[in-house]
């Protein structure tokens, strides 16, 4: 795994930059309907599963 200072050195001369929503992007992975029950969990607010 590269170190952050090595990554910053590599992109220091870049002409383009981008940002990724890593916080919310993770939760946006589609799950097929037949597999949604595998993601189910219970919380104090009820039974939930990913869509």
Walk me through this protein's architecture.
- The structure is a single chain.
- The protein is of the alpha+beta class and 51 residues long.
- A two-stranded antiparallel sheet has the order 1-2.
- It is elongated, with a radius of gyration of 18 Å.
- It has helices spanning 4-11, 22-25, and strands spanning 41-43, 46-48.
- Helices cover 24% and strands 12% of the residues.
- The protein has one domain (4-48).
Percent range for β-strand residues:
5-15%
Number of domains: 1
Task: Sketch the topology as an H/E string, one letter per element.
Answer: HHEE
| Distance, first to last CA | 32 Å
pLDDT averaged residue by residue = 84
**Poorly predicted sequence stretches spanning 5 or more consecutive residues:** none
- Class computed from helices, strands and strand pairing: alpha+beta
Radius of gyration based on Cα positions: 18 Å
Described by strand count, sense and barrel closure, the largest sheet is: 2 strands, antiparallel
Helical content, roughly? 10-25%
Name the shape in a single word.
elongated
Strand order of the largest sheet: 1-2
The tally of helices reads: 2
Total strands: the figure is: 2
Q: Would you summarize the structure shown here?
A:
This is Reverse transcriptase domain-containing protein. The protein has 51 residues and is of the alpha+beta class.
Topology diagram in text:
Layout: H1 4-11, H2 22-25, E1 41-43, E2 46-48
Antiparallel strand pairs: 1-2
Which tags fit this structure?
single chain; two-stranded antiparallel ribbon; RNA-dir_DNA_polymerase; DNA/RNA_pol_sf; 51 residues; alpha+beta; Rev_trsase/Diguanyl_cyclase; Reverse transcriptase domain-containing protein; elongated
